[in-house]
Amino acid sequence: MTGVVITGWSTVSPAGVGRAALAAAAATVPAVATVPAAATVPVGASAGGGWPVEPLPAAPVDVTALSDEPLPTTTGHALVDFDVRAHLGRKGTSFYDRATALAVVACGDALRDAAVQVDDGNRARLGVVLGTSLGSFRSTSDYTRETLVQDKPYLVNPVLFPNTVMNCAAGQAAIRHGLRGVNATVATGPLAFLDALRYGTNAIARGYVDAMLVGAVEEFSPHRAWTTSLTGQPVPTGEAAAVFLLARADQSGWVGPRREAEVLALATAYGPGGGPAADRALTGCVTRAVRRAGIDPAEITCVFTGETGPEDTDEFAPACAALGHVPARMRVSRLFGRCDAATGGLALATFLAAPPTDAAGRLALLTARSPDGGTAVAIVRGWPDAGPADR
Amino acid sequence: MNRVVVTGLGPVSSIGIGVSAFTDGLREGRSGISPIRSFDASGFPHRNAGEVPGFRPEALLRRIDPARWGRSGQFAAAAARLALADSGLDPATVAVDRAGVVVGTTSGESVVVEAVTAQQVEAGFGGMDPDLLRQVPAGRLAHAVSTELELAGESLTLATACSASNYAIGYAYDTLATGEADVMFAGGADSVCRWAHAGFFRLGALTADACSPFDRDRSGILTGEGGAILMLETLEHARHRGARIYAEVLGYGLNCDANHPVAPDRASIAACMRAAHRNASIKPEDVDYICAHGTGTPANDSVEAQAIFDVFGDRVPPVSSIKSMIGHTMGAASGFGAIAGTLAIAHGFLPPTINWANPDPALVGLDPVPNTARQASVRVVQNNGFAFGGNNAIVLIGAVE
């Protein structure tokens, strides 16, 4: 038990801006019950349906408006008409890159959703941690491109220089929303949201802050789209920012009456090679997290994985092995494309957006794995007052 | 809560690779600045940096293949390998999932990003090499260390720019203090690259030949590179194995200016110092030496000194900047500062600020330990790290009581 609760959240995703847009998108996608392949079901475990039912893949949209450069494919999962000025105005936003804009808007909306008013009395006790793969690949690459194509290599725009640094989005979120507490950026790609959740939970538990915005962001860009294509990724490029307000459960000034979920346990490990050692890293994480959470693994009704391929069970199979049963599986990349760092945040949002099935609350396991061998898991309890009915 | 100690040091720097060479470099006030060789700097008015031309990854790394990992990951892995060797720890005695790594960085695998960008310019986006694209993610800095040392615990990369090593040391300290791990490797790594050289030049923050922090005529930074990793373990773990203990991590403080993307903020930096002192349960008068952020820009050094005056009043300890010797190593900078501060405690000396010629009349009362290392008894060191994005991070290191 961490004693840390989630009191509000927002996503900026291909579904739109805000929790209602995400909930609506998840609810309108036609659903099919996925029966895991026999090979994924551990010996002695019973195959179960459980909650929720995984949707069919969402159709990608035309993304050609987002790039002056040729794209490898004309479609992807992006919020094509996103305009930061519509949300934050022109002042202070003109040099934002897309990742920064997505993140700053999501942070503001999460603060609103959690009913947190930032003022001089609390801003030093409120921080933000965001996950990323490498910041804005586009900002960084475009900056170094200028050093190659300009008449002189130093004819770069100094105002854009901070955009090349990976903490740009978190720093701008702090400036925009006046957040003077712990400000951090974790750069672990597919693990980054769960690592940010762990970082933020630690900062609260250690007393460095009272509350944290915890999130992750990836932008759609030709750089990421070409990476998806050239490295043979099975799902189209996506983009999103997902941000949650976390606070200590015993801090009534921050938590207020609304408690949507509790972060029960987090665990990370490293197991390279993609084989048994990598599977052991994940089963070890799940086992540790279950122990720390103090729960019966049979109560976990759904595993939200970062898997992308249709036949991919790299996360689900070891998770089931550790849990000793086969819960439902949700792969959010089917809805939102390959969102790298933001994947875990979209998973948590999708979990919280789904209508509750009973009054007792429900438990989800979130998993993530990186190509090199990084592993992270979280166990979250969604409370009955979560979900759209609450708003 | 467990106490946390420093038992291994791994510097890969322009003034020395390995703790012995780095210590000698600090004591001698050596300069690691040289003409840039890692990229064609001929078009730049300023052409010097703190590169590590003597870095031969194949001589230091045992497990990771340099062809598969970027330069920053190689720096991190080599520094961690050196820290492990320095600690005398037999890895077989540690449960693998109780040992992890946290690496801080500003620009991650910047050299790889520059290589794929050059391919884009040459042949269009479709001409980017997929093998290089797989090396681009910054998370590979920590993963390089985990792979090199076969660590199965946490493998985290923190990208909080130029204070990132202090963030990494702080988070590793929390992990050990709360009993999540027994051994952690923490610090940072970055590589010299064209785009940072260009960006700092255009900001007017890049000097030509010599970085001279706290000097009246200081005129900017020199970019630098390297890997700086400390091996931390719980005091109990260190004592049980009979380790040589350099120093103790007393605590740390973080805050954010929330004001300007690049300009430092005096009141916010002072607040960060106070938070760090509070978290480390020390008072300003306990601090014997401040290893400064000290970039050598007029603004940073002035704001940092004023914040020190605000917090320390008329009892300001000596304040020096090792960036005068190794340049601004970005995400590795506060890792090198932590190593220097640890050595100051272990060996009883203050690293100097070299290239120092004239006192700044605006900084009266500040002792920059000019040009020559000084013998001194050092019990507590304050290691400052500040960054773009207003990411302030300060670590306190003390002699083991």
TrEMBL record, chain A:
Coiled-coil stretches noted in the UniProt entry, renumbered to this chain: none
InterPro entries: Beta-ketoacyl_synthase, Ketoacyl_synth_N, Thiolase-like
Alphabetical list of Pfam families matching this protein: ketoacyl-synt
Cited Gene3D superfamilies: 3.40.47.10
GO biological process, one term: fatty acid biosynthetic process
Organism domain of life: Bacteria
Listed GO MF terms: 3-oxoacyl-[acyl-carrier-protein] synthase activity
Keywords: Signal, Transferase
Secretion signal, residue range per the UniProt entry: 1-33
Membrane-spanning segments: none
Domain Beta-ketoacyl synthase-like N-terminal positions: 82-219
Name of the featured protein: 3-oxoacyl-[acyl-carrier-protein] synthase II
Organism field: Micromonospora phaseoli
Organism lineage string: Bacteria, Bacillati, Actinomycetota, Actinomycetes, Micromonosporales
TrEMBL record, chain B:
Signal peptide feature range: none
Family matches, as InterPro entries: Beta-ketoacyl_synthase (IPR000794), Ketoacyl_synth_AS (IPR018201), Ketoacyl_synth_C (IPR014031), Ketoacyl_synth_N (IPR014030), PKS_Beta-ketoAc_synthase_dom (IPR020841), Thiolase-like (IPR016039)
The entry's keywords: Transferase
Domain Ketosynthase family 3 (KS3): 1-399
Gene Ontology BP term (one): fatty acid biosynthetic process
CDD domains named among the record's database cross-references: KAS_I_II
Any one GO MF annotation of this record: 3-oxoacyl-[acyl-carrier-protein] synthase activity
Keyword Transferase: yes
A UniProt-annotated Pfam family: Ketoacyl-synt_C
Bilayer-crossing regions: none
Superkingdom assignment: Bacteria
Family under the similarity heading: Belongs to the thiolase-like superfamily. Beta-ketoacyl-ACP synthases family.
Name of the protein in question: 3-oxoacyl-[acyl-carrier-protein] synthase II
Organism whose genome encodes this protein: Micromonospora phaseoli
Taxonomic path: Bacteria, Bacillati, Actinomycetota, Actinomycetes, Micromonosporales
